[in-house]
Amino acid sequence: MAITVVSNLAVLVALLLLVSRVFRPGARPTPSRVIHREPLSLLGRLRLSGVPGGLLLIATVLGWWSGLVSPVSFGLVGFGLAALLALPVAYTLTPRGIALGRTPPRRWTEFGGVGRQQWGVRLQGVAGGRGMTVWLSGDRGDDDFVLLLRKLVRGSYQGWVDPAAADATQPAMFADGMQRGAVGA
Fold first, then answer.
1. pTM of this prediction?
2. Which DSSP state fits 174?
3. Of 24, 32, 98, 146, which is most buried by a Cβ count within 10 Å?
4. Angle 26-47-116 (CA atoms, 0-180°, nearest 5)?
5. Phi, psi angles (nearest 5°) of residue 12
């Protein structure tokens, strides 16, 4: 009986950890204005949650088959995984950082580069820091989003806070709040 309770709790905690990748109840909304909101397609959500969700589902099925996991926990995991794939999730880009779904935003200065991959984009962490994977659908329209990410990461080190102002031909608002004209103007 005690093993069944522990295995049911372990399965439900694993489901909560999987959901916490895109939703954290205590996370505040992004504090600055939104530059762009990129919705995550179904393929992107599958890439985000597919492997850990599949492993959780296999573990739950094996536990249910062996009698260690109750049918209620099995149903909750199935419903939770289906809801995780069905609910809309978006990347929110602000002048200060990026957030996935309802998670705390990460600052642009945490990343040192943007690497394009087949499955999306890898924001590389600086000085041994933790990077971030941005899952994309693989469409041709993703290139504009990748360009915007590159501009925001590069601009964070040059003092720009507005990607539209990162062009040298127009004035920009710098991080210190001062507006400066274009180079040579």
1. 0.76
2. B
3. 98
4. 100
5. -70, -35
In this prediction, residues 98-125 reach a mean pLDDT of 90
Q: What is the mean pLDDT of the chain?
A: 81
- Tokens encoding 46: 């599958």
Distance CA 108, CA 10 (A): 35
Where do we find the tokens 């993703």? Answer: 142
Torsion of CA 31, 130, 138, 93, to 10 degrees: 10
Burial class (CB in 10 A: 0-12, 13-18, 19+), 94: buried
- Residue 10 belongs to what H/E stretch? helix 2-19
For residue 122, which of 110, 139, 114 has the smallest C-alpha distance?
A: 114
Q: Which of 107, 57, 52 is nearest to 78 (CA)?
A: 57
Region 10-26 average pLDDT: 86
Give residue 14's identity as a one-letter amino acid code: A
pLDDT tens for residues 131-179? 999 998 877 778 889 999 999 998 887 776 565 554 433 434 444 444 4
Share of the chain above pLDDT 90, in %: 28
Packing angle of the helix pair 2-19, 42-66 (nearest 10 deg): 180
Cα–Cα dist 107/163, whole Å: 15
Tell me the domain boundaries of the chain. 2-166
**Is 37:68 a contact under the CB 8 Å cutoff?**
no
